[in-house]
Write a structure and sequence with these properties.
heterodimer, A: alpha+beta, Alpha-Beta Plaits, Calcium-transporting ATPase, cytoplasmic transduction domain A, seven-stranded mixed beta sheet, six-stranded antiparallel beta sheet, 27 strands, elongated, B: 47 residues, mainly alpha
Chain lengths: 750, 47
């Protein structure tokens, strides 16, 4: 059973200067294991089957330095333990790539091994499950009519099991409730804790005096249900978080410094100081704001300003951190330390946006704020009324505690998270990661959608949009030459032909200028106008690549960013949902207007600074979709936000949802799913409250025995869970398999 | 009644045994990669 042939797609994406090829940087990242070995974790986002595990593990194990290699398919990571004395860690990533998988190293400081919260939740769940099951055995015997001495015995055994189990499993709720109460707030854990603690204490009291009713089973079952919901909720968020961490490719966190004596040295990012000389290879991103020392430097600024065309920076001007070098090897002089650089300023703006935004309180907390006082008033009234009118304070106490147990918001506490868990599963199948259930509530409230242009509405990659061939074979030769180069424009040119042929002859690439091919006596040159010796006729806003044959023009290609194919349909779909659509871009107004016209967006603004974008999304309940570094503060400031996986790390981290693939249909899908989920949440709340409306009068009247309490609580919880599962049934499309979803998730930022 | 005195400790002990087994499995990392475990069983090669 192989769903993939190992090595089917040999991956060649060894980027110049990437951290995986730098043994010194890898050693610094690795974790010491004590016995002289080190441990590194690599993300393998494409791994999805038994054959994948096998080929990665056997490939790594064949290296003499590797002690052990273990793939974790849930987190899509491989953990490698190696002996640094027997080999260089830079050999690890190439071995995984040779097995056919994309990989990159993960930063261990960001992600401690294991998940202590999950472990605690699962342990508490196990203990509560054990207690609930065993106590229920005794309770069933009591309900079926065990007599005095036997009943007392069973109550005592129940108490012995229940007390430690409730103390252990319940402490998660008690802690959270105490934190809320000690700052004068209330949350759902407050009524839960009060209900559980009082029910347990009363049962203990009843057991001591050989009473008829004990509610140990109710307390334990309640905790079991609540912990089950909470564990699922946590696993959902953890899965999204882990998938997003896997996407966060570690940028080289440093630069190659040129020393005065001509030697080179690797300097970590935070040790770069103004005045240092650094070297930047083709394809690398500028680490900190720095002055360009060479002529003819060309940068990709699309992720910073949203500008789609390559950005030329003259000698002596400053390139900002995050820009990618499209040209040849460059020397730069550091202008600002990393803490003052562009990226850090954006991170600061994100924090400011976070503080400025008043997050609406989550629906569960709003309900709890009303619910808890009402419940506690009812219980107290029951106690007072039975005591004063009936005169029997013991019966009064029993009935008041019965009210608290019945109203203990088991169904209410499950009503919201279970819907979020089911919805997150549906979104995940579609390749959409949701970071938090609260984002779903906000997405349902969105009343306006704002898109960024480059990389969001467009693909953010150049495509051939014009070609002028002077001689027939020019197209074939241009593609063959382009296939030999890694420059983005060459790649786009090679991609525009189905099967670029190999160029027969002598090839030479001059980084930043072009490619030269010599075929016998014919000299072909593909590249910039200057390289080809052509005088450009007029300045075109589009990037150009020329092809010459022995110095005579043979072909001209023009490139432009291309719209995502489904962008117009998506805009129309959003309008159909009653949402006005806006376009907010940092690119030139002319380019923005063209995209707005093509997609049918009337409200388009170009040339926006990051601050202006923040202001533009801060009105109403705006959903922002963007990918660039300059979008990140706006993504945080917006009511709710989405980013494609191709987004800059900082943008992906700021967004609430991350969607994979080139499919913008994810945006209306998230909104309709969120609205559907909000409707189910409302239904669940009605069910939970309706259950109380029926059961509370019975409890107030003293009619609730432990048996009735157990049945009522379990059934209301089950109804809420089943209602949430309805979400999985509607609009059932042919399922995208887990493998397809994981393929979509493995898509890497360009 | 004597039957109960024998059966109850056995029942509770079995429950505790199951709980201990669960906690042991959790601690030894058997719940860390559920998806991987479900796939590894298909890999029939001895290694």
């Amino acid at each position: 059973m192989t769903c993939c042939v190992p090595g089917e797609h040999a991956v060649i994406d060894v980027e110049a200067g990437s951290i995986e090829t730098d043994s010194a940087a890898l050693l610094a990242l690795s974790r010491r294991l004590g016995d002289g070995t080190r441990q590194l974790e690599f993300a393998v986002p494409d791994a999805h089957c038994a054959a994948c595990i096998r080929s990665i593990e056997t490939g790594l194990a064949a290296l003499p330095m590797v002690r052990s290699a273990r793939v974790n398919l849930t987190r899509r990571r491989v953990r490698v333990v190696f002996d640094p004395d027997r080999g260089a860690p830079a050999e690890l990533a190439p071995v995984i790539r040779a097995s056919g998988y994309h990989t990159y190293v993960l930063d261990p400081s960001q992600d401690e091994s294991g998940d202590p919260v999950l472990a605690e939740l699962v342990k508490a769940l196990g203990v509560a499950g054990f207690a609930a099951g065993n106590i229920m055995l005794f309770s069933v015997s009591v309900w079926s009519g065990a007599d005095d001495a036997t009943r007392d015995l069973f109550h005592w055994i129940s108490a012995i099991i229940a007390l430690p189990a409730i103390a252990y499993s319940g402490r998660l709720f008690f802690r959270s409730a105490w934190r809320a109460v000690s700052v004068g707030k209330t949350n759902m854990d407050v009524p839960i804790s009060i209900g559980v603690i009082l029910a347990t204490l009363l049962s203990l009291f009843e057991t001591l005096r050989s009473g008829e009713h004990a509610y140990f089973d109710a307390s334990a079952t309640l905790l079991f249900f609540l912990l089950a919901g909470r564990t699922l909720d946590h696993m959902m968020r953890e899965r999204a978080r882990s998938a997003i961490t896997n996407l966060a490719r570690l940028q080289p966190r440093g630069a190659t410094r040129l020393l005065d004596d001509g030697r080179r040295e690797y300097v970590p990012l935070d040790e770069l100081t103004p005045g240092m000389l650094i070297e930047l290879k083709a394809g690398e991103r500028v680490p900190v704001d720095a002055t360009v020392l060479g002529a003819g430097a060309v940068f990709d600024y699309s992720i910073i300003t949203g500008e789609s065309a390559p950005h030329a920076i003259a000698q002596g001007d400053v390139a900002v951190a995050g820009a990618a070098n499209l040209g040849a090897l460059l020397q730069l002089r550091v202008e600002k330390a990393s803490t003052d650089s562009f990226l850090s300023r954006m991170a600061g703006m994100i924090d400011a946006a976070e503080n400025a935004r008043t997050r609406p309180r989550r629906i569960a907390d709003r309900v709890a704020a009303v619910y808890a006082p009402v419940v506690h008033t009812v219980a107290f009234t029951t106690f007072a009324a039975w005591g004063l009118l009936g005169g029997d304070w013991h019966v009064a106490l029993l009935n008041a505690v019965a009210v608290l147990i019945i109203t203990c918001p088991c169904a209410l506490a499950l009503a919201v998270p279970i819907v979020h868990v089911v919805t997150a599963g549906r979104l995940f199948e579609r390749g959409i990661l949701m970071k938090d259930g609260a984002a779903l509530e906000r997405a349902a409230e969105a009343d306006r959608v704002a898109f960024d242009k480059t990389g969001t509405l467009t693909l953010g990659r150049p495509r051939v949009v014009e070609q002028h061939l002077q001689i027939p074979e020019a197209g074939r030769v241009a593609a063959a030459l382009a296939a030999a180069s890694t420059h983005p424009l060459s790649r786009a040119l090679a991609d525009s032909v189905d099967m670029p042929l190999r160029f027969v002859g002598e090839l030479r690439e001059v980084p930043g200028l072009g490619v030269e091919g010599i075929d016998g006596t014919t000299v072909w040159r593909l590249g910039s106008a200057a390289w080809c010796g052509v005088a450009p006729e007029q300045a075109s806003p589009r990037s150009e690549v020329w092809l010459t044959r022995n110095g005579a023009v043979a072909a001209l290609y023009r490139f432009d960013d291309q719209l995502r194919p489904d962008a117009p349909a998506t805009v129309a779909a959003l309008r159909g949902l009653g949402l006005p659509v806006a376009l907010l871009s940092g690119d030139r107004p002319a380019a923005v207007a063209a995209v707005a016209a093509a997609t049918g967006i009337a409200d388009a603004q170009g040339g926006l600074l990051p601050e202006q974008k923040v202001a533009a999304v801060s009105v109403g309940h705006t959903m922002m979709i963007g990918d660039g570094i300059n979008d990140a503060p706006a993504l945080r400031a917006a009511h709710v936000s989405m980013a494609p996986t191709t987004a800059a790390d900082i943008g992906r981290n700021a967004a609430d949802f991350v969607f994979t693939g080139t499919d913008l249909g994810a945006v209306p899908f998230v909104i309709t799913t969120a609205r559907r989920a909000a409707a189910i949440v409302r239904e669940n709340l009605v069910i939970a409250i309706g259950y109380n409306a029926i059961a509370v009068p019975l409890a107030v009247l003293g009619q609730v025995t432990p048996l009735i309490a157990a049945v009522a609580m379990s059934s209301s919880s089950l109804i809420v869970v089943l209602n949430a599962l309805r979400l999985r049934l509607d609009g059932r499309r042919p399922r995208t398999t887990a493998a397809a979803a994981s393929r979509a998730l493995s898509e890497r930022p360009a | 009644m004597t039957g109960l005195l024998l059966l109850i400790p056995i029942a509770v002990a079995l429950g505790l045994l199951a709980l201990a087994a669960f906690l042991w499995a959790l601690r030894s990392g058997q719940y860390d990669d559920l998806e991987g475990a479900s796939q590894r069983i298909l890999d029939d090669d001895d290694r």
